[in-house]
């Protein structure tokens, strides 16, 4: 099931794994000299969060819009987007209701402040990177659990966390090897290990989802692009494979390649603008491309899970944080309503951005508390 509808628009044949759904995804720059080294290299995420935080080196404005002297060596300034939106409670029954700009300045400034505090704590402590890695792995596993829960897939939280963290750490011999048959065989064996026959499908959803998450994060290391122009090739909906979110039809199969190329080009343009102007709102940026992707709905199945992987890939790169959408029952329903409204109006990330900012703040508070306890 995808987030914009209580029921999956298309259910035909065996469900594809997330890795199978985008074998050609290139989340690094195809021109990067390091790309060929990453391909085929054994890799796990253990130790990958130890080189600076946030990953994209964020600056922090004070209330007068000035950058404090102590952070001038960093690269980007956090600046709140004007695209945050909120819908009245009766929008689900009154189709004439329109969204309104949401004032999230208090939440944004609080999040901005806590990122600054964590950054200072990380600089002051040698062990901070290890503590951060523990929290990041846990939050990534929660994100997998929440994303699967939205689609009514996967396992319980405890088992999901155990499986995911093993993959992220490269334990069980599961060091990541890009598009390797050996790696896929290890994943398959891990799925079957100590598992009853009826549990294999649910366990496979978790393992493949975690592997897809790792696949994306390998490609967003420093100096690499988020998406390349030939991403997701060859796996789109085709022919008469239409998809609907409620009464609204997503992009027609014949128009998907153009829509996806446009998405990639716009993201690359946005990133170039961020680098040129040295300002960004990572929460709105992530929500924007999550929303755009799911409203294209390029695949027969799994669009919601992939869009949430993209969301977290951008957040990890530019804010050093993971958000788990749908982990709790109420959040799942809220996310589905937000996605449904976006589809109804033809796509708008404003309310999703507001939710992402809210969850990101909670995750950052957890990281700060962990660092404080172990300081």
Name of the level-1 CATH class: Mainly Alpha
Radius of gyration: 20 Å
CATH fold descriptor: Fic-like fold
Mean pLDDT value: 72
CATH architecture: Orthogonal Bundle
- Which regions have little confidence, pLDDT < 50, spanning 5+ residues? 1-43, 57-74, 222-234
Number of strands: 9
Alpha-beta content class: mainly alpha
| Percent range for β-strand residues | 5-15%
Keywords: ATP-binding, Nucleotide-binding
GO molecular function: ATP binding
Organism: Rhynchosporium secalis (Barley scald fungus)
InterPro entries: Fido, Fido-like_dom_sf, Fido_containing
Topology:
Elements: H1 18-21, H2 35-38, E1 42-43, E2 58-59, E3 76-78, E4 85-86, E5 100-101, H3 105-124, H4 128-150, H5 157-169, E6 176-177, H6 181-192, H7 200-218, E7 244-245, E8 248-249, H8 256-277, E9 279-280, H9 282-296, H10 303-319, H11 329-344, H12 350-373
Parallel strand pairs: 2-3, 3-9
Antiparallel strand pairs: 1-6, 4-5, 7-8
């Amino acid at each position: 099931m995808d987030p914009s509808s209580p029921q999956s628009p298309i259910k035909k044949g065996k469900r594809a794994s997330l890795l199978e759904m985008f074998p050609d995804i290139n989340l690094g720059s195809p021109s990067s000299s390091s790309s060929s080294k990453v391909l085929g290299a054994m890799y796990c995420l253990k130790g990958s969060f130890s080189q600076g935080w946030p990953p994209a080196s964020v600056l922090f404005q004070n209330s007068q819009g000035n950058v404090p002297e102590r952070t001038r060596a960093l690269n980007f300034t956090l600046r709140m987007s004007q695209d945050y939106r909120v819908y009245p409670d009766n929008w689900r029954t009154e189709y004439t209701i329109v969204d309104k700009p949401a004032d999230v300045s208090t939440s944004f400034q609080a999040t901005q402040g806590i990122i600054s505090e964590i950054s200072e704590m990380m600089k002051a402590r040698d062990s901070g990177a290890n503590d951060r890695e523990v929290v990041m792995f846990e939050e990534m596993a929660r994100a997998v659990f929440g994303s699967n829960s939205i689609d009514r897939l996967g396992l319980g939280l405890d088992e999901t966390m155990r499986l995911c963290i093993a993959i992220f750490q490269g334990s069980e011999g599961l060091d990541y090897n890009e598009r390797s048959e050996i790696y896929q065989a290890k994943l398959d064996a891990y799925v079957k290990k100590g598992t009853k026959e009826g549990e294999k499908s649910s366990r496979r959803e978790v393992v493949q989802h975690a592997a897809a998450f790792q696949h994306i994060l390998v490609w967003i290391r420093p100096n690499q692009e988020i998406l390349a122009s030939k991403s997701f090739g060859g796996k789109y909906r085709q022919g008469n494979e239409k998809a609907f979110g409620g009464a609204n039809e997503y992009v027609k199969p014949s128009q998907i390649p153009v829509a996806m190329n446009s998405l990639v080009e716009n993201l690359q343009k946005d990133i170039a603008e961020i680098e040129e102007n040295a300002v960004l709102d990572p929460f709105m940026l992530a929500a924007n491309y999550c929303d755009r992707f799911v409203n294209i709905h390029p695949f027969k199945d799994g669009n919601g899970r992939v869009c949430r992987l993209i969301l977290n890939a951008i957040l990890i790169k530019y804010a050093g944080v993971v958000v788990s959408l749908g982990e709790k029952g109420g959040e799942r329903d809220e996310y589905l309503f937000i996605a449904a409204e976006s589809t109804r109006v033809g796509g708008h990330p404003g309310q999703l951005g507001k939710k992402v900012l809210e969850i990101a703040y909670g995750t950052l508070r957890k990281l700060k508390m962990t660092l404080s306890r172990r300081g």
